[in-house]
Design a protein that fits this description.
This protein has 283 residues and is of the alpha/beta class. The chain has 2 domains: 178 residues, Rossmann fold (3-Layer(aba) Sandwich), CATH 3.40.50.300; 74 residues, Arc Repressor Mutant, subunit A, CATH 1.10.10. The protein is built from 8 helices and 11 strands. The longest helix is centred in the middle third of the chain and has 17 residues. It is globular.
Length: 283
């Protein structure tokens, strides 16, 4: 729609813009282009960075070179995990963070929006925001997170649900179906992220209180990093919509249960939180 200047549902039309669409999963000639043609995209405005001789990572200088030349309004990375780089463990926050910072810098410099497509994990965390593969730093760094899924009672019906928005209130879910002619929008949808994730099989996030969610966040961060400072955890909580006081209550609960330890000796002025390693017979 951006390449042709068309409007998405509920949005005013925009001037046509260039798009860089980098994909590692589908063939450009046999899959991507036919889909773009079916969607009436302006293919003259869709660009791809050539990977025929050398694979691309998000730290590759070719990305900035392409942005400077093409001046895209949108950069699509599909999927994110394919472009983090072979030396980056997507589950380690300290390795993912510099990559995201670099892309954020380029997005601001060239006034370009970035869409990072992620696959879902098979984990059963209560919050849909934690279900993406990789470090919790990825959704924490994003200004907006959308979930695309199917209606479990009608697989032909799909929806886009807004599960995080740092700059405004979450938007309402939008329903759509896929036809031979591309996407057909169905208007506002009652489907939620939990509906599409089949969250009825687990505890619904609304049935869990905020402290439970904060405990889950602390566990994810410490499992990723082995340790983290209080300020880092409070910052991650803020990005996820969890208050400092709620994280403090989670800390008190985990400490009382013997699941959390604290180290103030590693670096002066810093307190590191760590998960206590339980004896094998208790794990």
């Amino acid at each position: 729609d951006l390449s042709a200047g068309r409007a998405l549902p509920g949005v005013e039309p925009v001037e046509p813009g260039n798009v860089i669409y980098q994909t590692a999963e589908d063939g450009l000639a046999d899959t991507i282009k036919p889909r773009l043609v079916a969607a009436n995209a302006d293919c003259k405005r869709i660009f791809v960075i050539d990977e025929s001789e050398k694979g691309l990572s998000l730290l590759d200088s070719r990305i900035e070179e392409a942005m400077a030349k093409i001046r895209p309004r949108l950069f699509i990375i599909d999927p994110l995990q394919a472009y983090l780089g072979g030396d980056v463990d997507m589950h380690r926050a300290n390795e993912v963070r510099p990559v995201l910072k670099k892309i954020g810098f380029l997005a601001e410099k060239y006034e370009c929006s970035v869409i990072m497509i992620m696959h879902l994990s098979k984990a059963s965390q209560s919050r849909s925001l934690y279900r993406g593969l990789g470090s919790v730093d990825i959704p924490a760094a994003a200004r907006s997170v959308l979930l695309v899924g199917k209606n479990p009672n009608n697989p032909n019906e799909r929806a886009i649900a807004h599960i995080k928005s740092s700059l405004a209130q979450n938007g309402k879910s939008l329903g759509f179906t896929i036809t031979d002619f591309g996407i057909q929008w169905l208007g506002e949808s009652p489907l939620t992220a939990d509906d599409m994730l089949g969250a009825h099989r687990f505890e619904k996030s609304e049935d869990k209180n905020k402290v439970d969610e904060a405990v889950e966040l602390v566990e994810i961060i410490l499992n990723e990093n082995n340790e983290a400072t209080a300020s880092d955890i409070f910052k991650a909580g803020k990005e996820m919509g969890i208050s400092r006081r709620t994280i403090e209550r989670a800390r008190e609960r985990m400490r009382d249960e013997g699941r959390l330890t604290f180290d103030k000796t590693s670096k002066p002025g810093k307190c590191f939180w760590r998960l206590r390693k339980m004896p094998d017979f208790l794990e």
